[in-house]
User: What shape does this take?
Amino acid sequence: MTLRILLADDHAMFRSGLRAMLDTQPDFDCVAEVADGRAAVAETSRLRPDVAILDIRMPKLDGLAAAEAILASDLDTRILVLTTYDTDEYVYRALIAGASGFLLKSLPPEELVAAIRVAARGDALVDPSVTRRLISRFAASIAPVKTVAARAPGLERLTARENEVLLLLAAGHSNTEIGARLYVGDETVKTHVSRILAKLDLRDRVHAVVYAHRHGLIEH
Assistant: This one.
């Protein structure tokens, strides 16, 4: 299957280099390049790419506002934020908006390629070590809902084992680590994670972390 990709970055040289790198992948098709956030929103709406890669600092509309607009429009497009700016506010806004990843431009090309594929298939690309870093940096910024855990929306639909997996997921554990703790295989963990996301109407495992912290399932 060919993945259709949109690039949004106001630096033409970086954008061209990124496109040249993506064009080396036989299953990637870069359907558009734009230089500002407003154009990113318009072209994403028109072309409906599988993945939109957005810089943060762009004219007319910044990448985070563009991501929020795209993700609020019920398109199936997945958003990757690719930037040189790694700040708490940017990470928080991107992930709360529903972005499937927050990447730095220093990321090795092969890791960006892998991240695009991960996002396109509907998962988050944040690896366990980065997930833990994000938890420590922005979880304290999320004000927990004043409710008991049992009243968190959708939580009652989870089985006891799915609740266990959710808590381990929210603590930043990988599938392998969760499997080791629960004495089950990776595929079993993947099945539990998929069911948790479906039952709680969450986009991916990163947003399961946000859900758990927001609803007081994890102590800050």
User: Anything to note?
Assistant: The two ends are 42 Å apart (CA to CA). The first helix runs from residue 12 to 22. The domain at 3-125 is CATH 3.40.50.2300 (Rossmann fold). Residues 144-150 have pLDDT under 50 and may be disordered.
